[in-house]
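Because discrete structure vocabularies remain unfamiliar, it helps to consider an illustrative case, giving the amino acid sequence and backbone structure tokens:
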Amino acid sequence: MIIVNLDVMMAKRKISLTKLLEESGMTRANVSNFKNQRAKASSFTTLDALCRILQCQPEDILEYREDYDLGKEE
């Protein structure tokens, strides 16, 4: 399972959702789906924009966990 740590990176960079939306041009629904693990797929364009704005690497936002259950926090 791919885990999205976008909230963590936003907090580390002290960037609000409003600012992220303004700078990325993404819709609130698109970012919300991405943040909440509901996105079925994501483009490299989206990931590129997030990394550019947050000044981070893809692995700072995305994490792979083999045995992760979304209903259970570790």
